[in-house]
Amino acid sequence: MNPQKKLIRAETYTTNFNSRHARIIKSKSQPIQIDKLFQEKPQQTLTQSQQTEEEDETKIKKDKWMSRIFKNHPNLLEIRERIIPITQKTSFGKLVSKSHTEVKDHISRKVILSLIMQHLDLKGFSETIKILESESKVPFQKHYSEKSRLEPLLKLGIKNIQSVWDLKLETKGYQRESEKFDPETEINDSFLFDEFDEEDEDENKKPDVDIWSEPPTSNKNLIWLDNNSERKEIKNATLNKLIEYLTDETYSNTSFMHTFLMTYQSFTTPGKLLRKLFRRYDVPRGKLSEKKYQEKKKIIQFKVCNVLRFWILNYFSDFNERHIDELQNFLLNIETKEGKTTTVKTLNSILLKKISGNTKKDRKISYSLAPIPIVPKNIFSPTLTLDSIDEEEVARQLTLIDFEMYSKIKPSELLNLAWSKPKFKHRATNVLKMIEKFNEISLWVAHTILLNDKVKKRAKSITRFVNIAKYCKQLNNLNGLMSIYAGLDNSAVYRLKFTFEELSKKTLEQLSSFKQLMSSSSSYKLYRETLNTLNPPCIPYLGIYLTDLTFIEEGNKDYVNGLVNFYKTHLISKVIQDVQKFQQKRYNFMPVIQISKFLTNFPKMSQDTIYELSMKVEPRNSSRSDIN
């Protein structure tokens, strides 16, 4: 079909959708009595023409079937007019992209109604929204966005609308003709799926209420941590109470703001937090005098803007395109009502700089004091090998590769064990890249050693990797050190008895020191003590942080009696702060492209393949005389 016609169909559907709800407004005074539709009617004698018509019901063509039903039963037509957005749930649930339908097989009724009401609000159907709120018991939350979130879904949902009819009435084994996105209906993933995350139900979570309707503080919505600290710390609270405390007019706690914005995605989403802050900004007067109201309003609004400023400056990656639109509309609304205040100017300036990427953090690195790279003579050779590259330069280039990934890890990647859960893996891109690289290096080390068919060559290869690991340690690249050591400690290498007998005493002692440093005994006690003595630049071993986070996640509930377990998020924030501690200061080494490519383009190999090689070069129960 012509793409232009598809757009016309989508627009027509949306127009019809609005007109249906306009008709609902007119019928507001005459609510439908569902139970009356199904009451028995008195039996009547049918005429011959009516009997003939009934006999032909089974032979009706499918394109006339629907119109005949609604002609004979006008009440059903009126019901359909009211619930048709919800009946399209079948189409909504199939958003073409398998990667997301596997994660979000169903879209809840609440989400669909929220999408409809947001669309109706943009079109000005306020009375219809009130009717939907009343009938569905789903409260409408104002969205500071000028774009409908419903229309992109409708474009997907009605693409094969006739096929939905077929699915329901004729075929059982229906499948789509194409699994590919249509260019006219393709939409941004985050635009759709960020909001669905908000609707994830938790049986221990209290239902959401408007922030200004939150009950007064009690042990039902806020519990303080019982400690000897002079500064109060929240143990458990509702989301509204956390935001109240974040923007409290009588109290300031910068540390709390850092912890909250670092970890909030473990219990809510950026979109929901943003809208609650917008709502918090609209301070109601209540029973306060004009003077006290103005004082309270001024402080709370300043606190809200301060939180937004800190959020934009430090966690701008949390915002997608829709969030930025909402934020800009919010600032525009303030400017319209209150004029161009200093606060609005500052927020607009920061936001525009972040959008354009013009920030101090993004400045380029100067290599003026960088050591001269140790480049081999055959650097441009297509057959460049590890043996021709200096061991220290290998360690430098590995360190640059590791730091590039480590420095990009965001706090949200370390929440909810995102790297280990299919539903949240899209959040942990850099963590997963670093895990993958770690495994690649360790397998590459083992594979490189086992490619040598002679004992002395394997021993020489092991010695070379030990030296590279030693240089990694000198550069404070503990993650690189551990990835190489993991390859040397691989069962396929560790079993090479005759190869290890050929190693020098110095190499064996160095290997032993690595084993002690990276030992997991006493919760990596020696490693942690060593790390505390190091100054940036440094790349810690990421696996230990992931282990710590796993213990915290599995040992503490997300909610306690329906309240957010903020004590848990406080523990998580300490680990994240440890990660961030080494993300700022970069290494001052010059990248050597040829060596970097060599260290990032390893052949794919499996543990089984490597172990087969090991058994080939040193068969089980063989003697030294049997080995080359």
TrEMBL record:
InterPro entries: LisH (IPR006594), Ras-like_GEF (IPR008937), Ras-like_Gua-exchang_fac_N (IPR000651), Ras_G-nucl-exch_fac_CS (IPR019804), Ras_GEF_dom_sf (IPR023578), RASGEF_cat_dom (IPR001895), RASGEF_cat_dom_sf (IPR036964). The keyword NAD does not apply. Keywords: Guanine-nucleotide releasing factor. CDD domains: RasGEF, REM. Residues 40-51 have a biased composition (Low complexity). The keyword tRNA-binding does not apply. Residues 230-355 form the N-terminal Ras-GEF domain. Residues 390-620 form the Ras-GEF domain. It holds the Pfam family RasGEF_N. SMART domains: RasGEF, RasGEFN. Residues 40-59 are annotated as: Disordered. This is Ras guanine nucleotide exchange factor i-related. It comes from Anaeramoeba flamelloides.
